Amino acid sequence: MHVDLYQGLEDAIVAGDTDASVVGRKIVLPSSFTGGPRNMMQHYQDVTAICRTIGTPNFFITFTCNPNWPKISQELQRLLGQHMEDMPDIIARIFRMKHT
């Protein structure tokens, strides 16, 4: 049995749907998708609720990670030509994996 991967696209073109904005499905990412707009809004709302309840923070604490962690090196080697400073999303994701 042969399955044509582009059958849906071909059907849309044959039907005259040449405007790409009406072809396909809209996918809404849940707030659990790290880095998505709903996730960022949820974090913002959490922070404002905390500040409203206990007041504004007195200190701003930052955390750093070692860019030479093996997992970071593995991911950057997989993405040829990329450097640690080019991929802050990978660094943040690995940091969260290690500290949650």
UniProtKB/TrEMBL annotation:
Q: Name one Pfam family in it.
A: Helitron_like_N
Q: Which domain of life is it from?
A: Eukaryota
InterPro entries in the cross-refs? Helitron_helicase-like (IPR025476)
* Domain Helitron helicase-like as annotated: residue spans: 3-98
This one is known as Helitron helicase-like domain-containing protein
The protein's organism comes out as Sesamum angolense
Lineage of the organism: Eukaryota, Viridiplantae, Streptophyta, Embryophyta, Tracheophyta
